[in-house]
Amino acid sequence: MSNYEVKMDEQGKIVRGFQVKLGKVSRLIFPIVCHTPDELSDFTLRIQVKSDADSLLSQFCVQTPPPPPKSAVKPSGQRRFLKKKEVGKIILSPLAVTTKYPKFQDRPVTCLKYGKVLKTVMRQSKNPYLLEYKKGDVVALLSEEKIKLKGQLWTKEWYVGYYQGKLGLVHTKNVLIVGPIKPAFFTGPELTSSVLLEQILRPCKFLTYIYASVRTLLMENISSWRAFADALGYGSMQLAHFCRADVGSESERVASVLEKLKEDCNSVENKEKKSFQKELMAALLKIDCQGLVARLIQDFVLLTTAVEVAQRWRELADKLAKVSKQQMDSYEAPHRDRSGMLDSEAMWKPAYDFMLTWSAQMGDSYRDVVHELHVGLDKMKNPITRRWKHLTGTLILVNSLDILRATAFTPADQGDLAI
Rounded to the nearest 5°, which phi and psi values hold at 104? Predict the structure, then answer.
């Protein structure tokens, strides 16, 4: 890289420690000067990260990307720019939206395993996500994958099962798996993709969310307001029902449809009270945006847990990551007032900051994040999961997304996943 030089600014490029702990992205710009512009070539840039004491913490290399291929076809004719009054009159072709959203199909769930119940279980303290069953009956299992969770007293292994029209967890020791063939004496409603969708979304209405974050994610990841509106049940409505006709970008139209959903769910005039979270998740799953749903569910779970644990967040942090007292203080520091006090009602903020950092260290597996969070909460003294049981329902949700997608969409559709 002798032909190139990194030009240093008068101000040093510094990343603060608390920014790293909060998982924030730091964008530092370093101008690179070429001494001989006529001799441009590829190069490799080595970046070193040092501490205040000038000790080397880490280093990595970045290579210049390959140049884009030159197009052999040159545009012919003079470019024409639209006048301001013409912008609102543009009618987009159906081919203008490149992302194809597949159609949700209501089909029977076929990739099930069946098991014979070995023990009758009737629970004294009712839990909507733990199944009750009778000895000798047959339960359908979504998979043989086991989930480790705390029961009434001890940590046990569970299957996600379907019994008498209800989806929930069944203790593995209470079921003898007999195979994939459906027994003739299996009773209860058939499990279809629509039934499965309705069942797994039960906990969504109990999750807390930040509307601005949801709006931003949808604007960035949904490329067709029409497909989004159809999935929400607004198929008969034109664009004018959601926003002005001169709204230019597709993302703003998506935001307008989302705003319409929020108004409908919060309206006191509607006889049927709808849940914004549940309706949104159902619509996204119907257009095969499973990745976006997983991201939203994880964000909702982390925020809801932060609100629920509040002042007990330090105990949870110790169970999840063995965080030191000094690290805990650093999470609370940005939220203290000038006198150094932290209001009890604002305690969810450092809890949320910690869980964002912790979840980022867990990697990309949203299943692992929800499961490990549940395990950490179970380890707390007087765990909140005893009264707040909807995290268990959320765990069932994230473990059922794959089988829902495999049932509701054809193999040809799965290649057109939007996110």
Answer: -70, 125
Q: Is residue 41 within a helix (H) or strand (E), and if so which, with residue range?
A: none
238 burial via Cβ count (<10 Å: 0-12, 13-18, 19+): exposed
**Distance between CA atoms of 385 and 309, rounded to whole angstroms?**
10
DSSP 102-118: PPP---B--S-EEEEE-
317-343 confidence digits (pLDDT tens): 999 988 888 988 898 888 888 888 888
Alpha carbon distance 160, 144 (integer Å): 8
Tell me how crowded residue 61 is: count the other CB atoms within 10 A of its CB.
Answer: 8
The rounded distance, in Å, linking the Cα atoms of 44 and 408 is: 47
pLDDT at residue number 417: 46
Q: Are 301 and 373 in contact (CB under 8 A)?
A: yes
Largest Cα–Cα separation, the chain: 83
Residue 291 and residue 217: Cα distance in Å, rounded?
Answer: 11
Write the pLDDT tens digit of every residue in 176-205. 999 888 888 888 899 999 999 999 999 999
| Rg, Å, the chain Cα set | 27
Is residue 139 over pLDDT 90? yes
What single-letter amino acid sits at 330? S
The residue among 368, 372, 373 whose CA lies nearest residue 351 is 373
7 vs 285, residue with greater confidence: 285
- Interhelix angle 290-309/401-408, rounded to 10 degrees, is 150
Q: Mean pLDDT over all residues of the chain?
A: 82
CA distance 71 to 55: 47
Chain centroid to Cα 211, Å, comes to 14
HSE, side-chain direction, 13 A CA sphere, residue 127? 23
Q: pLDDT value at position 261?
A: 93
- List phi, psi (to 5°) of 356: -65, -45
Which of 209-213, 243-247, 366-370 is predicted with the least confidence, judged by mean pLDDT? Answer: 243-247
pLDDT digits (tens, 9 = 90+) for 74-121: 444 444 344 434 334 333 333 333 456 888 999 999 889 999 999 999
Q: What is the DSSP letter of 246?
A: T
Report the distance separating Cα 163 and Cα 168, nearest Å.
Answer: 8
For 342-366, letters b (16+ CB in 10 Å) and e give eeeeebbbbbbbbbbbbbeebeeeb
Cβ atoms within 10 Å, residue 391:
24
